[in-house]
Amino acid sequence: MKAVLSGNEAIARAAFEAGVTVSVAYPGTPSTEIMMNCGRYPEVNAQWSINEKVALEVAAGASIGGARTLCAMKHVGLNVAADPLFTMSYIGVNGGLVIITADDPEMHSSQNEQDNRHYARASKTPMLEPSSSAEALEFVKAAFTLSEEYDTPVLLRVTTRICHAQGVVELGERTERKLPEYKRDFEKNVMLPVNARKRHPLVEARVEKLRKAGRTSPLNRIEKGKDAKIGIVTSGVVYQYVKEVFPDAWVLKYGQSYPLNTDLAKSFAKKVEKLYVVEEGDPILENELKAAGITVHKGKAQTGLTGELSIDRVREAFGKRPKKGLTTDVEIPARPPALCAGCSHRGMFAALKAEGATVFGDIGCYTLAALPPLSAMDTCICMGASISAAQGMMKARRGESRRMACTIGDSTFMHSGITGLIDAVHNRSPFVTIILDNRVTAMTGHQNNPNTGKNLTGEPTAQLDLEKLVSACGIRKLDVVDPWNLSEIREVLEKHWEYDEPSVVISRRKCIEWARYREIPYSIDDDLCTGCMSCVRLGCPAIVFDKATRKSSIVEDMCVGCSLCSQVCRFDAIYRTDQEEEHRLVAKKVKAKRAARQAAARKKVAAKAKGAAKKSTSGKGGRG
Amino acid sequence: MINGITNVLVVGVGGQGIILAGEILAKVALNAGFDVKKSEVHGMAQRGGSVNSQVRYGEEVHSPVIAKGEVDILLAFEKLEALRWLPFCNKKTIAIVNSQQIHSLTSATGLQTYPANVEKELAKQFKRLYLVPARHIAEELGNVRVVNVILLGLMAKTLNFPEEAWIDALKKRLPPKVMDVNMKAFARGYSLA
Q1: CA geometry: angle at A363 spanning A362 and A368, to 5°?
Q2: What value does the mean pLDDT take over residues A254-258?
Q3: CB within 10 Å: which end of chain A, N or C, has fewer?
Q4: pLDDT band at A322 (very low <50, low <70, confident <90, very high)
Q5: How far apart are CA A31 and CA A316, in angstroms?
Q6: Distance CA A616, CA A511 (A)
Q7: What distance lies between CA A283 and its chain's CA centroid?
Q8: In what order do the strands lie in the sheet with A274-278?
Q9: pLDDT per residue over A147-168, tens digit each?
């Protein structure tokens, strides 16, 4: 049966068909949907783990235990999981172990665009690179066979344009696999130096064996073209762009990009006049070919090191002009992503900004608070770094009085923030850790985590007690606030700034996109709005400022009634729509007061003008 | 059409149902026996940002992403987003545009200006332009969330697949409790072309 599947769906389907019985991941764009879809097949036993290192260790144990195991993560997740990866390469497998690394060239949703093909080389782990959904399904199955045949974990590298691109896939049946016997194996599974020294030569031999096998592997293929003038070496999704731009060229497509069989490229080079290497990211294929003595006529010098490739970029790189589309003189405003109307993160950042705090941030929806108009964040490095980096900042600038805070989501805190907090307590570093507890892993699409009290399949499980956990770390000052209440937050923060030990504030409210609750919406009274833009600076998508009239207004069907704008309005202009009558009374008083104040001001100005006139006659000239 | 491939670009603002529209089209094209590829970006961009879904179908499709100047049908759920993607369109592109205006955070906060002349510019750029008050129609139908299906209905009429193929695909994808209003929305869109 044929289906249109994304690369991520195809990988999950492949796990099902390959007889996988354990699958594990931590969510991260563009990899998240792999495990979400594994969850649709009860046989593959999908789970979210707390971070990628834990996920890969669970996977390692499952593989040692004999299960075919799939582990998935985004590219930066493999940095976290690098520790078990390098040693599992020595240990090898009992049940096949396939690790998916989902790279994000162009950084659609990431903090860097590292090329994880380097990890294959560094950890001596074979790597396969599919170029479509259909190949993703095929290659995952091939990866399990390779894994068991060569006693090695196998990396499968996909990129955003594989993960989130859909293509036609032929679905197969599941092949059940008998769980092999588990026997204690001291020399293979206990990586004491004495054993690891024996394993390392085996790993090197395995790499060479796999390199040789690449010569005839069906994963690598040469496609004869109509025109032998150009031969292109490529891998992954880039192959698809090459086929569109050079439909007549010869192509050598590497499916097994590590260990790379360069003999294949040597014989390919003999058949074509000029050899080009077209690859995204770093010049990995190019350097290997060059090291093997193959002349590369064009490569990275033309395609560049940054961003993702496309039909247009490949055209441009090789002197074929991209098609010209339509152009306009109209200036088009940018449409960056924004925190949702009613987002539980907004209030905390508005308060931190008002408090003039230095704020070290982390990875999650709340990183959007770094963008204007909130502009309330100093740093964003990697998962968990907010707490540890805040400690470093305090050490670097000790002696200064500083309102130092770090903000971290509940899922990120559990991922790798908790270690930083224990470290801060241990090293007695006085700053405020703010846990933005929205009860769910929000940015990647609302995955369950220990804080939701439900696991991947929605089954109830123990709910983490953040307060107890934080206390057990040695935190002696802890407060819980509602991020929809600005004065409460500021009152609490004021006390925490004074405290000379590390302290914690839990900002707790359910993610509005996930829990989908609504309160009564608010409205703005045109007569009272002075155009001060305090509400606009909250960065709420429901608030629109009209430059011509200099008035704010609220888009009623977007407003969820968080009330933050009414809390920051100093002119009583914002009211809850069910309190219009009460508002009218207030408005009347405000207007009367305002009129009186204006009258008084006019009087003062007049008096001043009189005085100034006198002064100027005495010869002391002012400026204009 | 270039090399027998039809390129459809669906654009709009995160949360408008862009991904669903692309999904339905892909399914219909597959059922008609075409090779199909579709591409989109998830994650952070979906939080109120500019979102797109690209669908390509034909005998054999390689790239999941459309090249500049090669869009055959532009389906825009918001009019400014239609302008944003002009470089991917050409003079022959059929543009189906929701006349709704949704402020971006930059235009809502006064950092940038939402241009006043979007509709005029669209009329100048496209020979075949359907400017549809889909939001008003959705309100009339009693559910503002069916904007995407109204526009999908209009697009369906401009493509060569039987009407039932679309209805089948929608029925398989949508939850039963909103089926009626979505069927009405599709029919309304279909009648607009």
Answers
A1: 90
A2: 98
A3: C
A4: confident
A5: 30
A6: 62
A7: 25
A8: A221-223, A250-253, A230-234, A274-278
A9: 999 999 999 999 999 999 999 9
Residue of A30, A326, A336 lying closest to B86 (CB–CB): A326
**Searching chain A, which residue's CA lies closest to the CA of residue B118?**
A330
Q: How large is the ipTM?
A: 0.94
Give CA separation, A601 vs A353, A605, A611, in Å. Answer: 32, 6, 15
Three-class SS of residue A436? strand
* E strand spans, A185-293: 221-223, 230-234, 250-253, 256-258, 274-278
Beta bridge partners of B89: B71
Per DSSP (E only), the strands in A181-284 are 221-223, 230-234, 250-253, 256-258, 274-278
Residues of chain B found within 8 Å of residue A31, distances taken between Cβ atoms: none
CA–CA separation, A579 and A566 (whole Å):
13
Instruction: Record the pTM.
Output: 0.94
Beta bridge partners of A441: A447
Averaged pLDDT for residues A243-266: 98
What's the one-letter identity of residue A72? A
Closest by CA to A343, choosing from A200, A507, A193, is: A507
The one-character DSSP state at A21 is -
Q: For residue A175, which amino acid is it?
A: T
Q: Which of residues 50-79 of B touch A (CB under 8 A)?
A: 50, 61-65, 67-70
The structure tokens 């390779």 sit at: A146
| Local structure of A427: helix, strand or coil | coil
CA distance A140 to A102: 13
Per-residue b or e along A359-386, where b marks 16 or more CB atoms closer than 10 Å to that residue's CB: bbbbbbbbbbbbbebbebbbbbebbbbb
Q: d(Cα A159, Cα A309) in Å, to the nearest integer?
A: 11
Q: Which amino acid is at A245?
A: V
* Torsion over CA: A584, A588, A589, A595 (sign): positive
User: In the numeric block, which tokens belong to residue A369?
Assistant: 């608070």
Nearest to A523 by CA among A587, A473, A465: A587
Nearest CA in chain B to A366: B44
Cis check: omega of the bond before A30, within 30 degrees of 0: yes
Check B64 against A237: CB less than 8 A apart: yes
Q: Which of B38, B103, B109 is facing A166, going by the closest CB pair?
A: B38
In sequence order, the 6+-apart residues with CB closer than 8 A to the CB of A598 are: none
Could you give the strand order of the β-sheet that contains A256-258, starting from the edge strand earlier in sequence? A46-48, A22-25, A69-74, A97-103, A154-159, A127-128, A256-258
Say if CB B52 and CB B30 are below 8 A apart: no
Judge whether residue A250 has pLDDT over 80: yes
